[in-house]
Amino acid sequence: MKPRQIVSPLALLLITLSAARISAAQEAPLQGFDDYVNKARAEWAVPGLAVAVVKDDKVVFARGYGVRKLGDPAPVNERTIFAIGSATKAFTAAALAMLVDEGKIRWDDPVTKHLKGFQLYDAYVTREITVRDLLCHRSGLDRGEALWYGSNLDANEILRRIRYQKPAWSFRSHFGYNNIMFLAAGRIIPAVTGRSWEDFVRDRILAPLGMTSTSTSVAALKNFDNVATPHTRTAGEVKPIAWRANDNVAPAGSICSSVSDMARWLRLQLAQGSYEDKKLLSLGAVEEMQKPQMIVPYDAGTALGAPDARFMNYGFGWFLHDYHGRKVVRHGGNIDGMVAMVGMIPEEKLGVVILSNLDPGDLPSALMYRAFDAYLGLPAQDWSARMLKVMRIAEARRKAEAKRDEELRVRNTRPSLSPGAYAGTYRNDFYGEVKVTEQQGRLLFYYNEVYSGELEHWHYDTFRITWGGAGTGDAFVTFTLSAQGRADEMKVQKLDDFKRVPESASARK
User: Fold this and answer.
1) Which of 32, 41, 315, 469 could pair with 450 in a Cys bridge, judged by C-beta atoms 3.0 to 4.6 Å apart?
2) pLDDT tens readout for residues 467-487
3) Considering only CA atoms, which of 84, 100, 139, 95 is closest in space to residue 340?
4) 424 and 386 share a domain?
């Protein structure tokens, strides 16, 4: 046994002062940040959030604010788990990059080389679309969210039905954000390795980084205690809501994590694929993921996520834009009741992650820029107030649009048919079946738990519906009558056209 070392009081004092100086030096750029976060959180009425900052491969800040759930005093800390939503996409891109590093796939491989039976609406696009195209949103398809959001369809059926989605733009001509293309990208992993996306991400990324409180599914949250509750704002009031599972498009947005864990992910990205002497990704792979692949149409006057940017591009699971002469690499995440922001300035070796339990809201972006400014030595801006103003302008615009709809409404009209005559099953090849039922003179529209609600007569054969899902808003449903005066088609705003199924026909899956 070695003799016990005795530290003199003077030496102990010097050690303590030295540690304090190091801590002060690390936190100096963020002096006053705590007060700013608390003030901004109150302005946005956000129940809870957490922030972590990485600089020069060190976590220099990690803290929680507020509560996990309104009405419950349990506080948020740096280990509280939130949904990161679409920030998951960069994990999927990194998993595929590992396969590129191993020579098992190439970025420009045709998707059909790995996904047998993969088919899009256009035969040419089916043949030509590559792994690269999947990862940078240039398939020519718009979102088609209702196919999976709130749906009981599994991943296989979602990918099968993508062949029926008509393109919104020409292939590779326009940025079109599409979660289903990231689902397809994630399915390449089991096709090549025989291991699921979930297992591959856990074993090849989460475990080596020590991200022990991170999961690839909402279902896994039952194994953790320190979990935030989602909230939404309805009629000006913030309320808790239930977690919504989205495992059917997991590679696009199912990861749940804490800022403590996500700081490790930032360190991997900022260290160009290395983490504590472990090389997980090649430099070339990281550069390819963070390189512009597709131009993103961008209006600096209305964008919340990238104010003052002069351009915007998309890499592989990352948005890219300029900020005061530096390249910002970032991605947000929005899922029922949760907002995330993960952002980096690679040349400064600076990264920030903010996770929040209220949606909608862009407070995470505001706090990211506040932290960026602090480390770039820029004058402090009140980003919270600035983004609140933009959000309120957007809200005013939506109210103006609703008012304009009211002004264009033709009053004192009646539907052509009795309520029961509109009832029936309507089908679309991509979305499947919608059921319209009549109950005591009321028409009810059912597609899934999100895109469902009561049809309120608007004018003529047009009805208005308020969707049941958080943030999905209102839409108009217009019935078209045949020459025989029968409702045989239904045009659903934000979805597509649906044709009535003959009552004698058996329902197809």
Assistant:
1) 469
2) 876 556 789 999 999 999 999
3) 84
4) no
- Residues 280, 268: contact at Cβ < 8 Å? yes
Q: Tokens representing 271?
A: 């260290």
CATH number of the domain that residue 427 is part of? 2.40.128.600
Q: What mean pLDDT do residues 159-183 have?
A: 97
Residue 277 contacts residue 292 (beta carbons within 8 Å): no
Do 388 and 447 belong together in one domain?
no
Together in a domain, 378 and 495: no
Question: Same structural domain for residues 393 and 423?
Answer: no
Q: Which two three-digit tokens encode residue 72?
A: 């419950």
315 and 424, same domain (yes or no): no
Is 288 part of any domain? yes
CA 421, chain centre distance (Å): 40
> What is d(CA 283, CA 274) in angstroms, rounded to the nearest whole number?
9
* Two tokens, residue 25: 């030096």
Q: Are residues 375 and 430 in the same domain?
A: no
Q: Is residue 241 part of a domain?
A: yes
Q: Are residues 444 and 392 located together in one domain of the fold? A: no
**DSSP collapsed to 3 states, 360-411:** CCCHHHHHHHHHHHHHHCCCCCCHHHHHHHHHHHHHHHHHHHHHHHHHHCCC
Backbone phi, then psi, for 242, in 5-degree steps? -80, 150
Condensed to tens digits (0 to 9), the pLDDT of residues 51-95 reads 999 999 999 999 999 999 999 999 999 999 999 999 999 999 999
Expressed as residue numbers, the domain containing 449 is 419-500
* Joined tokens for residue 471: 């943030």
- For residue 82, the surrounding DSSP H or E stretch is strand 82-83
Distance CA 402, CA 390 (A): 19
Rounded-to-integer distance, Cα 165 and Cα 432, Å: 11
Helix (H) / strand (E) containing 6: none
The last residue of a domain, from among 349, 365, 398: 398
Longest CA–CA separation in the chain, Å: 101
Residue 2: C-alpha distances to residues 6, 8, 9, 11, 12 (Å): 12, 18, 21, 21, 21
Q: Which amino acid is at 111?
A: V
Mark whether 138 and 281 lie in a shared domain.
yes
Which tokens in the block code for residue 19? 């540690």
Is the pLDDT score of 245 beyond 50? yes
User: Helices (H), strands (E): how many in the chain?
Assistant: 16, 23
The answer to whether 184 and 111 are in contact (CB under 8 A) is: yes
Quote the CA–CA distance of 188 and 162 in Å, as a whole number. Answer: 16
73 domain residue, yes or no:
yes
Q: What is the dihedral of CA 463, 469, 470, 473, to 10 degrees?
A: -20
Instruction: Please check the confidence at residue 334 and state whether its pLDDT lies above 80.
Output: yes
- Residues 6+ away with beta carbon under 8 Å from 393: 302
Q: How far is CA 147 from the centre of its chain?
A: 16
Boundary-marking domain end, from 365, 398, 431: 398
Instruction: Answer positive or negative: Cα dihedral of 234, 237, 238, 242.
Output: negative
Q: Decide if 4 is inside a domain.
A: no
What domain count does the chain have? Answer: 2
